């Protein structure tokens, strides 16, 4: 058998028009999608090669971009999947329920499932906050900059439930061209956002100073030393006059701690639904249409700010998704507004192969009307 060929590509090499159609990647902002693709693998597989085997836990979303793949069950039955015939990852259950073998030469996109889930949630929380910020007239002058911050590199490290708190923690600092903001080798006690101006990042090594990057508005720097509790690994000097927003070390650490969200234990779900608790699926409409809890309504996280008005503060809701990350974020954001919402604990159990047939067989579309669940069209 031939050795498997792999090709690691930078994000600019991916066909973004194609990638933006995939579920749930289609519901991510471009900045978060590019960050995800930067750590993903575009792979070429020859006919006859195995993509994954039944029983494996590979923790990957595997998308078939081109070519044909045979899905072989343990009873030897086969299903042929053609490239672009589905926008979903191939046979995504973990552990894998089938073995996937390339029928023709294929191109695949492999994405770490945990990284996808984190960036998807961050992206959609930023969408929620963007709509809320746009409604606050006090922020009119700062909306563009605030949205740049929400899509910045810092939020690849901070739990998404904390992003709305960051602006109250930032303090401004006027700086001038030539000012050294952080120095290589020093112990870090704060990180910074650039609100105005540009800065140069350099590193001194082997008696040489190397220019690493020029960074501008919205960029966060200095956070790596705080995350890793290590000395600064580079020097940052202002190229122009500007304004920085400073985040102190202790405030940064507070942002790393995910807040507590009220949850409903998985084993209490059937009784709660029978008692009239309304299930809300916060996944995309495509994911929802594949199967959901009985009579669950669909309010995707990325349009939560628009659809929240459909909820009634006198009713009780349980939010869920495939991993629990998106539903915890949605439940937390709306609980702050006074809604009676629980996040389902251990959501992944719903999507385990043995559970899906029990809980997720409903494919009917449902809507909320005057606080009551009604069939949609």
Which helices and strands appear, and what pairs or packs with what?
Elements: E1 5-7, H1 16-19, H2 30-37, E2 41-45, E3 50-52, E4 60-66, E5 68-72, E6 78-82, E7 99-102, E8 106-112, H3 113-135, H4 143-150, H5 166-169, E9 171-175, E10 180-182, E11 190-196, E12 199-205, E13 208-215, E14 220-221, H6 223-228, E15 235-238, E16 242-248, H7 249-256, E17 263-264, H8 269-274, E18 278-281, H9 285-289, E19 297-298, H10 304-307, E20 316-320, H11 325-335, E21 340-344, H12 353-359, E22 366-369, E23 372-375
Parallel strand pairs: 17-21, 18-19, 18-20, 20-21
Antiparallel strand pairs: 1-2, 2-8, 3-7, 4-8, 5-6, 5-7, 9-16, 10-15, 11-14, 11-16, 12-13, 12-15, 22-23
Structure report:
The chain has helices at 16-19, 30-37, 113-135, 143-150, 166-169, 223-228, 249-256, 269-274, 285-289, 304-307, 325-335, 353-359; strands at 5-7, 41-45, 50-52, 60-66, 68-72, 78-82, 99-102, 106-112, 171-175, 180-182, 190-196, 199-205, 208-215, 220-221, 235-238, 242-248, 263-264, 278-281, 297-298, 316-320, 340-344, 366-369, 372-375. The protein is of the alpha+beta class and 377 residues long. It has a five-stranded parallel beta sheet, with helices on one face. Strands 1-2-8-4 form a four-stranded antiparallel beta sheet. A hairpin with a 2-residue loop joins strand 12 (199-205) and strand 13 (208-215). Helix 2 runs antiparallel to helix 3 (113-135) and helix 3 (113-135) packs parallel to helix 11 (325-335). Mean pLDDT is 88; it is low at 1-12.
């Amino acid at each position: 058998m031939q050795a498997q060929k792999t090709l690691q590509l930078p994000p600019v090499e991916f066909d973004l028009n194609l990638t933006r159609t995939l579920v749930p990647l289609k519901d991510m902002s471009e900045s978060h999608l590019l960050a995800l693709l930067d750590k993903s693998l575009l792979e070429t597989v020859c006919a006859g090669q195995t993509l994954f085997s039944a029983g494996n836990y590979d923790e990957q979303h595997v998308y078939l971009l081109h070519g044909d793949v045979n899905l072989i069950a343990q009873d030897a039955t086969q299903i042929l999947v053609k490239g672009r015939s589905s926008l979903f990852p191939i046979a995504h259950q973990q552990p894998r329920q089938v073995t996937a073998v390339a029928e023709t030469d294929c191109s695949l996109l492999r994405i770490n499932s945990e990284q996808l889930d984190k960036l998807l949630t961050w992206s959609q929380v930023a969408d929620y906050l963007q709509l809320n910020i746009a409604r606050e007239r006090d922020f009119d002058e700062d909306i563009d900059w605030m949205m740049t911050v929400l899509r910045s590199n810092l939020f690849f490290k901070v739990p998404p439930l904390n992003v709305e708190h960051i602006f109250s923690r930032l303090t401004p600092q006027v700086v001038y061209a030539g000012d050294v903001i952080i120095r290589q080798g020093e112990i870090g006690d704060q990180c910074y956002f650039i609100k105005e101006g540009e800065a140069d990042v350099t590193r001194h090594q082997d008696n040489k100073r190397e220019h690493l990057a020029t960074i501008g508005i919205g960029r966060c720097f200095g956070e790596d030393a705080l995350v890793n509790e290590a000395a600064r690994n580079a020097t940052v000097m202002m190229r122009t006059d500007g304004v920085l927003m400073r985040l102190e070390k202790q405030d940064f650490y507070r942002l790393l701690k995910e807040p507590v969200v009220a949850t409903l234990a998985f084993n209490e779900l059937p009784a709660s639904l029978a008692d009239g608790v309304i299930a809300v699926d916060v996944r995309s409409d495509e994911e929802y249409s594949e199967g959901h809890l009985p009579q669950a309504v669909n309010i995707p996280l990325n349009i939560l700010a628009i659809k929240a008005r459909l909820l009634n503060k006198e009713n009780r809701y349980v939010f869920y998704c495939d991993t629990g990350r998106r539903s915890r974020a949605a439940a937390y954001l709306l609980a702050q507004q006074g809604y009676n919402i629980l996040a389902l604990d251990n959501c992944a159990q719903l999507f385990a192969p043995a559970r899906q047939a029990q809980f997720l067989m409903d494919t009917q579309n449902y809507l909320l009307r005057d606080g009551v669940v009604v069939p949609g069209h």
